[in-house]
Each structure stands twice: as C-alpha cells, then as structure tokens.
Amino acid sequence: MNNLADPGPRKSNRSVLFQAVVVCLVMFGFGFAMVPLYRAFCNLTGINGRMAVVATETLAQSDLTRVITVQFVANRNQYLPWEFKPEVSSVQVHPGEIRTVTFFAHNLRDVPMVGRAVPSIAPGEAAKYLRKLECFCFNEQHFASGEARNMPVRFYIDPRIPPGIDTLTLSYTFFDASPQTTMVGDKTAAGS
C-alpha cells in the first residue's frame, strides 16, 4: 500500500491561499488609492469644495465684457446653535477677476465647538468654473465659547465659463463637527 498523501488537496490548498493573498493585496491597494482618487475626482468635479487652487499670477486677463452675479447663501444644520450669514447677499464679478467676500459665524453656546462647512454651487455646471483660492470650508473651524468671527472666501470665475451662465449661487451649510458630539435618536447632543 502507498502511504503517500494525495498531492491533489495540497495543491488545491496552495491555490486557494494564493488567491486569498492576491485578493487581500488588491483590496489593500484599492483602499490605499481611494484617497488620491477621491481628491482627483473632487478637483475635477468641484464636489466637496475641492476646487483647483491656482496661483494668482497664472490667471488669464479678466473678461471685462461679461458680468456674472454670484449669490451667497448660508445655512446651518438645525442642531448647530450658531449664527451664520454672508456679509453680502451677492456680488457682480468679471470672469477672471479675484474677489473676496466674508461670512460671519458666531458660536452661541457656552462651550467650544467645531464646525465644518460643506459648499454647494448652482447650477452644477458652474462648479468647475468657480475657483476658490481661500475658503473657510477647506478646514474645520474651531470656535471658543461665544466666539464670533468673519471668515473670508477668495475666489474667481474661470473666463472659460459658458456664455449661458450669468448667475451662480455659492451656498454653505455648517454642521457640528465637535468630537464630543453623539447621536441620540434623531437628535444631536453635544457633551459639555
């Protein structure tokens, strides 16, 4: 009698192990690549406020033949106890002209809070032509108890914006991003 084990199961086990290792490596590589892919996608589409940042010296000449109205809207999550508003409701700009506007925010609570602003641009087609050079939406905003401040947004509109777009709306919604925030049912409760 032959006491040697059948090589079939051993070969099958090695094949399954090899496939599992390959799958794990592919999953790791995909997870590792997600952040740069997401950033590239957001830069391309203008989603999440990640617009291409361009040095001012590379800007084309302003198009003085066109005027575009940029409207500003400020919202806050219903559970965020802040005052938040634009200092002006709209400005008129020439494509290529750099403008700065400010938004006012005030933490009405007696505890420090962290806020995160999420931008939105309408019409959606205009998102790829609005370039933010400076914006409070790029980072979380830390506010002390009762703190109020003006926050700038420095932007320009790419002169290649289609002729049919003469008004665009830049809106921000502030959400509570404080680390002590917990969800309780449908309500948000911030720990003191």
Please summarize what this structure is.
By secondary structure, the chain is α+β, with helices and mostly antiparallel strands. The chain has one helix spanning 7-45, and strands spanning 68-76, 82-86, 90-93, 99-107, 113-122, 130-135, 141-143, 148-157, 167-176, 181-184, 187-190. It is 20% helix and 39% strand.
Task: Output the keywords.
single chain, 192 residues, alpha+beta, Ctag/Cox11 (Pfam 04442), 2 domains, 5-stranded mixed β-sheet, 4-stranded antiparallel β-sheet, 11 strands, 39% strand
CATH fold type of the largest domain: Ctag/Cox11 (Pfam 04442)
Q: How many strands, what sense, and barrel or not for the largest sheet? A: 5 strands, mixed
Q: Rounded to an integer, what's the Rg over CA atoms?
A: 25 Å
Helical fraction equals 10-25%
What is the H/E string?
A: HEEEEEEEEEEE
The count of domains is 2
- Give the mean pLDDT: 80
Write the layout of secondary structure elements.
Elements (H helix, E strand, L loop, with lengths): L6 H39 L22 E9 L5 E5 L3 E4 L5 E9 L5 E10 L7 E6 L5 E3 L4 E10 L9 E10 L4 E4 L2 E4 L2
Parallel strand pairs: 1-9
Antiparallel strand pairs: 1-3, 2-4, 4-8, 5-7, 5-9, 6-8, 10-11
Q: Overview of this structure, please?
A:
The chain has 192 residues and is α+β, with helices and mostly antiparallel strands. It contains one helix and eleven strands; from the N terminus they run αβββββββββββ. A hairpin with a 2-residue loop joins strand 10 and strand 11 (187-190). Mean pLDDT is 80; it is low at 49-58 and 181-192.
